[in-house]
Amino acid sequence: MPAADPELVAAARAVRENAHAPYSRFKVGAALRAASGRVYVGCNVENVAYPEGTCAEAGAIAAMVAAGDTRLIAVAVIADSPAPVPPCGGCRQKLAEFGAGEVPVTLATTDGGLTQTTIAQLLPGQFSAAHMDRA
Ligand code: THU
To answer: 122 forms bridges with which residues in the sheet?
Structure first.
């Protein structure tokens, strides 16, 4: 398992400060490194209509795609939690859309906790385009 990418963790930590999380009070930051080398960041953006909120990972992916990058090679997510917070189910599928199974994912806490995993470990048995081959 590759070591955590310190630049990504720092970028996720910084963007987390901008999270709009007045309802959960749980701020999350995410950073992605694209195949181009560029780093993209996102934070959670909640809404008074609760289901309309978006996750930090989704924001970072949207920024990457909007900038013209299409593949991610490393991910970091950070929150102020007792243990490193894993991406929600929907975000696991979103990460798998743009990153290979072996892509390293660093889960961090604001007080220095780190867990290293991969997209494949986060989403075993993932739904993929191959499942639609008879369509
Ligand atoms: N959240 C994220 O942004 N990413 C995660 O990986 C876990 C959860 C957000 C969604 C919501 O704004 C808040 O954390 C509480 O669920």
So the answer is: none
What was the pLDDT predicted at 91? 97
Name the fold adopted by 6-132. Answer: Cytidine Deaminase; domain 2 (3.40.140)
Is this structure's pTM higher than 0.90? yes
Residue of 55, 92, 115 best suited for mutating to test ligand 1, as the one with most atoms within 8 Å of CB: 55
Structure tokens at 59: 């924001």
Q: Edge to edge, what strands does the sheet with 114-118 contain? A: 39-43, 28-34, 72-79, 104-109, 114-118
**Ligand 1 pocket by Cβ (under 6 Å):** 21, 24, 26, 28, 44, 46, 53, 55-57, 77, 85, 87-88, 91
**CB-based contact 30:18 (threshold 8 Å):** no
Beta strands in 1-135 (DSSP E): 28-34, 39-43, 72-79, 104-109, 114-118
| Residue range 111-132: mean pLDDT, rounded | 93
Name the band, by pLDDT with cuts 50, 70 and 90, for residue 3.
Answer: confident
